[in-house]
Amino acid sequence: MKKVIMAGMMLWSASTQVLADAATDLQQKLSALGRFSADFTQQVYDESGEPMQTAEGSMQLARPDRFRWHTTSPDESLIVSDGTDVWMYDPFVEQVSIVPLEQAVQNTPFLLISGGDKARWQNYRISEQNDTYVVTSKDPAELIQRFTLRFNNQGRLARFTVVESGGQRSEFTLSEFNTSPELAANAFRFTPPAGVMVDDQR
């Protein structure tokens, strides 16, 4: 019995070490991407795996915690983080919601890519295989249950996938990756246009 218990403890310890190493490796890869810009295409699938919608746009990132995600088609939307707060703007309904960064991370996992706070990663389990990292939420109530990131042989983020708790999946493919982008001074700030309804949740 003691041998069985010891073997179980050794397996648990080894498994924990592998997960810890995967988390460290992922954070190091993301930290190496201090700032970048890229175009993206998004394919959305329903819970049964059937294609629902295709979208495209661009993203800009500067660590820590500054992020700009601009969807241009089929409908325009914008997510901007200045490192403290996050603006989520929908031009179609003429509304912008403002939430604290920590609250936004729970439902907008893209922000983990730009995050500089290692404590946030404590809420996720991370595994790795062949430069693909699977980030799984420890909170069953969280909207995003799984987040997969894939890097190419240059260490650049090439693809990522978001799986929601209901089973809907979004696959993102990045192109035109630039590790030295010229970023506008106001790239990570958002000023609501005149007449837009502001939902400030800070």
Automatic annotation (TrEMBL):
SUPFAM superfamilies for the chain: Prokaryotic lipoproteins and lipoprotein localization factors
Chaperone is among the record's keywords: yes
Keywords linked to the UniProt accession: Chaperone, Lipoprotein, Periplasm, Protein transport, Signal, Transport
Record InterPro entries: LolA/LolB/LppX, OM_lipoprot_carrier_LolA-like, OM_lipoprot_carrier_LolA_Pbac
Places the protein is found: Periplasm
Lineage top rank: taxon: Bacteria
Record-linked NCBIfam families: lolA
Record protein name field: Outer-membrane lipoprotein carrier protein
Species name: Oceanimonas smirnovii
Organism classification: Bacteria, Pseudomonadati, Pseudomonadota, Gammaproteobacteria, Aeromonadales
Gene name of the encoded protein: lolA
